[in-house]
Amino acid sequence: MYKNYVITSETICHVLRIIWDAIQGKCKRDIREPKKRHWLLYAYPKHKFQHIQNIKLLLGLLVLYIPFPLFWTLYDQQGSRWIFQATRLDGVVGSYRIRPEQMIALNPLFILTLIPIYKLIIYPILEKLSLGTPLRQITIGGILTGLAFIAAFVLELNIQKYESPCQNIGNNEAHFRFYNVMPCELVINFTSDNPKFNETIVKLDPLDVFEILNVKNFDEKLYYWINFKIISTIKKCRNVTGNTQFYRGFSVGLVYYQRGSINKKSQDNDWFIEDTSCDISGNAKVKFLRTMNRLQKLELKTDKVSFEIPESYEIEEYSIPVGKYKIVINDNVTVHCDECETVNFKSGEVTNVMIIQTEDDGYQCKTFQLTGPNKIHMLWQIPQYILITLGEVMFSVTALEFSFKQVPASMKSILTVIWLCSAGIGNLITVVFVKLNIFQHQVRFLQFNFFQFNLNLFHFTGVGISHVRRLISVPSAKITELLVSSSIPTTPRTVLGSNLLIWIDMLLFAFLAYNYTNNPLIDIQPRSPKSPEKLPKSASDNDDVE
């Protein structure tokens, strides 16, 4: 048999009703009546005085929660921004590769380790340094959280240092590459309707690549035409004249290859958008550009696994797990690429593999790397995970413990709702920042400074919180007298110091916003494929190979 227990604590609806009645009572009061000390008293005697007192204590405590959404804005980016950062790091440790999404598992492990260390070592030390009060611990936790994002910022700068130029395509420029996937030497004449593009004549051997980076002067145009005239130095390859488009903000590739036998003169050219960003899974992104006498089976093999590349002349992109592979055609012919028996695909690498079949049914293979592999190890993220975990224990755990000790038992459920709502608002702030793209190059760093600005609200709210604590400590018989006659104890020095710190931090935040908006250093947005074509295929999502 089930028992229905009567709800003894205030609910959200009850709290909102008292607040609404207090607002209505204040608005409808007679001007001739003496003004009450607190606006919530206008809900009395319609509601019990104890309930009004509980809500007043709750509202006084909520001032402390003003910076909380900004803490969650930073903290919850472990599951988004930091994972995207990890995709540009090398996770290989011996024979095992750490995946980007696995790094977030460090946070709960560090929490389980640090909580007892805090209780036994850190908190006693803070007590001796007169930093053991909850508000001071919360402030230290916020500072540690900010330091975690400074560590992430420094790591981002080092990642940027090793990135390939083709990864950073500006909004007013484009990249262009021509791939000679033919067993012929070609002489090509390039012209364009872009006034900054000079006529260029190049000579390309088989499996050579010609690239033009940072084509500028797009102004308001979406794309320009590039014209090409291909002249073969031998008769077996046809001369071709044509044109293609290269788009603003994109990297465009043009490949010259054949479909079927050379004797049938089925040479063709095709253009495609090259996505030079790292694969989100940390795998290598690979395209296969091939000239075959006929469609043939192509496989990537190791001792443990093999991936089959479909028989097609279409230019597809594949996500290949990190490892060393043999390129095998028709189950029996191993193709040596770059004069090596295996091709080593590394984490974060973006590579095009060019294969041609000669008239004597031999094969030639060469790789062209668009984006280099990740050169900084993923374990360099550990310092920022340690800092944010230290900040979480001191900020989140201390704040929650402090809050629950300050409110009556009947208000604890309401406080839990407010706590969860602050986390939701923090995530919403992140969404708004990313969607508006206001600080596209320094989002995390500016959020840290904005968070630092709100930390100074603790100076402002500390007086109010001390007043709430004084209310809770008095006997219940004196609550009425204290509620009616009390006022927040302030001193000119306290108010002046708080306001001065807030104004200094506001000026600092304005300076940083202007500086980093006009002088962007890095792009920390998660990179997504820029191609308007269909999404790339994945060869396999199996485990990594050696």
UniProtKB/TrEMBL annotation:
GO cellular component, one term: membrane
GO biological process, one term: peptide transport
InterPro entries: MFS_trans_sf, POT_fam
Keyword Nucleus: no
Transmembrane parts of this sequence: 55-75, 104-126, 138-155, 385-404, 416-436, 500-517
Keyword check for Protein transport: yes
Molecular functions (GO terms): transmembrane transporter activity
Alphabetic keyword roster: Membrane, Peptide transport, Protein transport, Transmembrane, Transmembrane helix, Transport
Compartment annotation: Membrane
A Pfam family the protein falls into: PTR2
Region (Disordered): 525-546
PANTHER family: OLIGOPEPTIDE TRANSPORTER-RELATED (PTHR11654)
Family classification: Belongs to the major facilitator superfamily. Proton-dependent oligopeptide transporter (POT/PTR) (TC 2.A.17) family.
This protein's name: CSON011213 protein
Species whose genome carries this gene: Culicoides sonorensis (Biting midge)
Lineage of the species this protein comes from: Eukaryota, Metazoa, Ecdysozoa, Arthropoda, Hexapoda
